[in-house]
Design a protein that fits this description.
Length: 83
Amino acid sequence: MPELMSKPKLRWACRRGMLELDILLAPFVEDGYDALSLEQKQVFEQLLASDDPDLFAWFMGHGKAADPAIQSLVETIVRRVRV
């Protein structure tokens, strides 16, 4: 089983080229990441490996991730922001 990224590395990986993504991802690492299951944490790392235009489309609802696990996590993050 691959080792998960440390919190400092996750924070760094959440720094993107788009402010909209920074606003979604950075707070999630601080407030929501620890509550994820091990599998969800692995999916979050996969999500962070995605290109910014794809992430932007998924988070803004202009498209869906091909991987259902990534799409589910995108929806979880969006729900946390709307609450």
